[in-house]
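Ticket #4471: structure export looks truncated?
Reporter: QA, pipeline team
Priority: medium

Steps to reproduce: submit the single chain below to the structure queue and open the exported record.
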Amino acid sequence: MTLPDPKALTEASATDASADTPFMRTIKTYVLRAGRMGTGQMRAFDLHGPQFLVPYQADRLDVPAAFGRAAPLILEIGFGMGDATAKIAQVRPDDNFLCCEVHEPGVGALLKRCGEERIGNIRIVQHDAVEVMDHMLGTESLDGVHIFFPDPWHKSRHHKRRLIQPPFVQRLAQHIKPGGYLHLATDWQPYSEQMLAVVSAEPLLHNTATDPSGFASKPDYRPLTKFENRGLKLGHGVWDLVFRRI
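Actual output as written to the record:
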């Protein structure tokens, strides 16, 4: 497998991602798309929002107060409809999951599930994760970060919109505690190769993979989604990357 040159990818961006500077103001971790909410999802905002929604704020979040306990904190960026998020939180009850998503149908779906299944270790911030990190979370405050199946932006002219870029990865690394981890997954091979090159070039992160490819085996806690299962049956691949903060 031929991978992009990490140095070239790193040099391609001149953005400074220092911890004290608001990061990538022209680039968001999301692109808004239209979506309709079902009745159950809409009701979930009223029924379960007060317990599970954390309003965005421009100062540090009191994490133990938000969750009602102190526990390792995992940030999830872009959870879609929240199916995998809910399952991971259920199999890892000793961790707190702060989940960022801007799309209302997905937020409503996860709120509904949290309320119905009493998943107490999830909190949702319906806001851009970059600003959440910049203002609500301090450096070295996270025990882990999950980014599963971000938009691959297939067309070459759209590659600059991909989330996994050197300044963003640098920012993530600064927010992860030493010994914490970054877990990425994608089902688009060209994007997986870019991800591997970009994250490998970040000096604060170390690849935990033992396979010569540089990709990790799927951790047991990450469930297979219905789309992933469908793709695997069609012979499509899925690539996981797990890096540890030095």
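Status: closed, not a bug. The export was complete when the record was re-opened. Leaving a note from the reviewer for reference: Residues 39-52 form the longest helix (14 residues).
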